[in-house]
């Protein structure tokens, strides 16, 4: 999942029919309480090929399922939710549907029906169902701009890690122009993007595929979907896996403090990466010769005042450097390449005098630094290639409705100075993630949201998974998630990565037994990933 776009890291359907729909019914009660299931139309599946560039495997179906735009007016305007199903490979042993969400917010889950991370037994006994939540990619994407040119005119004025007063002012001005565009162009959907609506959509889809209870796996932001579902519909939980967890209570009550702690999670992951790099040493870790922490800090501090120009003319800036390091921390597979990029950039910074003194084992080609010249977008913006505006704005649409923020955007500039003292690499970066929420046309303070309680006793145990050094959702968030939920068990993995399913054979065995048999893992387990970060050369 990219950042997301690190955690995944994926069109348009506005349905105006009058499908029989349940009203916005009261939240489900505790297990055992009588709760009549309102009837909904079944999903109208059609065979499809998710990758037309390849032969059709004949195992997929797709659909656009209509849900109410506004659950207070269930018979009114509809939004189409794009769904993709991989049919269970052994229909005679089919248990039900496994719904998947990769996070974001704004991550496209549609193609996640094609994932193999859950293994053959799960694929045999479950239909894998991926979907794009409302406002995302193929599901009525929330759009703040009419054309890509209009979007670029605003977004290109934003600096990812603004340092100078001019950079800060220009970024905040661009954020204001961004929210003005959202107010003008996004339409009524912008009022109905909070997670409570995504969860209501998910429950309708659960009924529409004929499942009496929900089986779900959510990653990153998808853990908020899963935990919200568990508390809105506790009696409808069959099996919920949440991996790479948010702290739902903090996220829904204090956006700024949540983001401050999120910056701390990136710092913890970075520090562990640098420690493990130094322990491995060069050449196993290309950046491992000398004091890795001191070298990294020297690079970062240099970039605060001066970009580093590579031999091909491209430049590593503080913003590109920070965003690429953050992105790499999402995936263990990216850490060894990150080490090469850091070493190459460090060599360029040290030239000409100091470079000659570097030990040969620490030298890597200059072109390895090119990756650090790329600014990674914070939001997943995916849309058909022929769209006039090739993206969507669901990332802010969800975050600004879920997370309460101050209405004065200068607060973000003020906290940036404080946060970077405790989180020197990512504090300022994280502080400028959400200034648009200060002037968002449908902010959290005015939105219908689910903000707790989070302790409902679910009919079955929720499986919580946390990496010890998860950058985007630090480990203590997973610990809090398990503590806040009314019936949950935590499994931990000693890994620097965002999310863990598919990275550990031992974990996947637990996941399979939980999904298939309903056997919850024993608490207190600490697992190892299958792969090493810096394998022997």
TrEMBL record:
Residue ranges annotated for the AB hydrolase-1 domain, each copy included: 98-266
Keyword Nucleotide-binding: no
Pfam family of the protein (one): Abhydrolase_4
Keywords: Hydrolase, Signal
Coiled coil region boundaries: none
Peptidase S33 tripeptidyl aminopeptidase-like C-terminal domain residues: 424-524
Key word Disulfide bond present: no
InterPro entries with a match to the protein in the record: AB_hydrolase_1, AB_hydrolase_fold, Pept_S33_TAP-like_C, Serine_prot/Carboxylest_S33
Similarity-based family: Belongs to the peptidase S33 family.
Name assigned to this protein: Peptidase
Origin species: Kitasatospora aureofaciens (Streptomyces aureofaciens)
């Amino acid at each position: 999942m990219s950042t997301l776009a690190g955690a995944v890291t994926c069109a348009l359907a506005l349905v105006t029919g009058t499908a029989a729909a349940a009203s916005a019914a009261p939240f489900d009660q505790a297990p055992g309480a009588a709760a009549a299931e309102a009837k909904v139309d079944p999903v109208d599946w059609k065979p499809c090929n998710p990758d037309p560039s390849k032969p059709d495997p004949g195992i997929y179906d797709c659909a656009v399922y209509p849900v109410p735009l506004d659950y207070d007016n269930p018979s009114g305007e509809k939004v189409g939710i794009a769904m993709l199903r991989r049919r269970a490979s052994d229909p005679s042993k089919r248990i039900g549907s496994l719904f998947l969400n990769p996070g974001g917010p704004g991550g496209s889950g549609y193609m996640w029906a094609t994932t193999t991370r859950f293994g053959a037994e799960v694929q045999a006994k479950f239909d894998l169902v991926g979907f794009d939540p409302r406002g995302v990619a193929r599901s009525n994407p929330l759009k703040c701009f009419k054309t890509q040119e209009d979007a670029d005119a605003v977004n290109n004025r934003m600096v990812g890690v603004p340092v100078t007063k001019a950079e800060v002012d220009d970024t905040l001005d661009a954020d204001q122009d961004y929210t003005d565009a959202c107010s003008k162009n996004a339409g009524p959907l912008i009022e109905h993007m909070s997670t409570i609506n995504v969860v209501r959509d998910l429950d309708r889809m659960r009924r529409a595929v004929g499942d009496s209870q929900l089986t779900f796996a959510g990653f990153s932001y998808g853990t908020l979907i899963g935990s919200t579902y568990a508390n809105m519909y506790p009696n409808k939980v069959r099996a919920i896996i949440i991996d790479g967890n948010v702290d739902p209570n903090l996220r829904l009550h204090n956006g700024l403090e949540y983001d401050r702690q999120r910056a701390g999670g990136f710092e913890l992951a970075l520090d562990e990466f640098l420690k493990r790099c130094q322990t491995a040493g060069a050449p196993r870790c290309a950046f491992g010769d000398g004091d890795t922490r001191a070298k990294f800090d020297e690079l970062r501090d240099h970039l605060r005042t001066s970009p580093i120009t590579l031999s091909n003319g491209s430049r590593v800036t503080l913003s590109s450097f920070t965003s690429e390091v953050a992105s790499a921390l999402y995936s263990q597979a990216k850490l060894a390449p990150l080490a090469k990029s850091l070493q190459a950039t460090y060599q360029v910074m040290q030239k000409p005098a100091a470079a000659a003194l570097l030990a040969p084992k620490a030298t890597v080609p200059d072109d390895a630094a090119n990756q650090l010249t790329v600014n990674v977008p914070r939001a997943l913006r995916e849309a058909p290639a022929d769209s006039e505006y090739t993206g969507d704005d669901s990332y802010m649409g969800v975050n600004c409705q879920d997370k309460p923020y101050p209405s004065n955007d200068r607060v973000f500039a003020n906290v940036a100075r404080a946060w970077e003292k405790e989180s020197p690499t990512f504090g300022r970066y994280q502080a400028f993630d959400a200034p648009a929420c200060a002037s968002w046309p449908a902010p959290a303070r005015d939105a219908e949201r689910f903000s707790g309680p989070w302790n409902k006793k679910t009919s079955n145990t929720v499986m919580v998974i946390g990496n010890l050094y998860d950058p985007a959702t630090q480990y203590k968030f997973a610990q809090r998630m398990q503590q806040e939920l009314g019936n949950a068990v935590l499994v931990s993995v000693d890994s620097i990565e965002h999310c863990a399913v598919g990275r550990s054979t031992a974990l996947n065995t637990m996941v399979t037994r939980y999904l298939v048999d309903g056997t919850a893992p024993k608490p207190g387990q600490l697992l190892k990933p299958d792969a090493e970060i810096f394998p022997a050369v």
